[in-house]
Design goal:
alpha/beta, Rossmann fold, 2 domains, six-stranded mixed beta sheet
Length: about 250
């Protein structure tokens, strides 16, 4: 069985997707649970792969709005910490998730295949685009994602970590109001119904819950995660790229 280290796990939706496809996942430290990757040393030769998504606030297309108000994104660029973990751990492969405008990780000795993937390409209705970088030790390998021929007619905006749903530039009063709420972090959208809606969009079970969290905290944690359909598609592609059968990770 392939042993995988998940860095920046949050509530580990990406890790759960890999587990569902037969991988064994070990969670690294995360600020959500009082951890700090900067104090973590990855043991060499213990993991077949390393996965994770460093905080994306500083690469978000909305970061300029934060800076315009005299602030800096809460988390700086932690991609170098992910790269350090790969250098230390020396896994056969790694997979990093980020927003589209984030830089591609670079680790000496690894060929990297970077690409954008929209959740809708997998037959899902949520419009959520992420940059994925798959590194393989040596010559590098390409991830082949199984996508649908036609995207669904239904369309839903991306779930996000700001207690709601991200909205594009509004064309009517209702959307403009939602845009203003988005810019404010959706602080007044904290109903349990919003949490259930986020869970549905992310492909989580109807009874999924995070009892220790406030409703706002639940929305942030789920919205920051990788949709289950996307995570499982990536895990299946990693199996193929690393020479495993589609049915297991053994």
């Amino acid at each position: 069985m392939q042993l995988v280290l998940e860095q920046f796990p949050g509530i580990s939706l990406l890790g759960a997707a890999f587990e569902a496809e037969g991988f064994c996942v070990v969670r690294g430290p995360d600020v959500l649970w009082g951890g700090d990757i900067r104090r973590f040393t990855t043991p060499p030769g213990q993991f077949d792969g390393i996965i994770g998504g460093p905080p994306c606030q500083c690469f978000s297309r909305l970061a300029h709005m934060v800076r315009q108000n005299g602030h800096e994104p809460k988390f700086g660029n932690l991609i170098p910490e992910f790269e350090r973990s790969v250098r230390e751990g020396e896994p056969t492969w790694f997979l990093m998730e980020e927003v589209p405008d984030a830089p591609v990780p670079s680790v000496e000795g690894y060929g990297v295949h970077a690409f954008l993937l929209n959740n809708r390409q997998l037959g899902e209705v949520q419009n959520r685009v992420r940059r994925w970088s798959f590194g393989y030790r040596g010559e590098g390998r390409i991830l082949k994602i199984e996508t649908v021929a036609l995207e669904p007619l239904e369309f839903e905006y991306a779930a996000c970590g700001g207690h709601g749903t991200s909205i594009g530039v509004g064309l009517d009063k209702r959307r403009k109001k939602q845009c203003r709420l988005y810019n404010q972090g959706f602080h007044n959208v904290k109903s349990n119904g919003s949490f259930r809606e986020l869970c549905r969009k992310q492909g989580l079970p109807a009874d999924f819950d995070l009892p220790p969290f406030t409703v706002a905290g639940k929305c942030t944690a789920v919205g920051n995660g990788v949709p289950m359909a996307m995570g499982r598609a990536l895990a299946r592609a990693v199996k193929e790229a690393t020479g495993l059968s589609p049915d297991d990770a053994a």
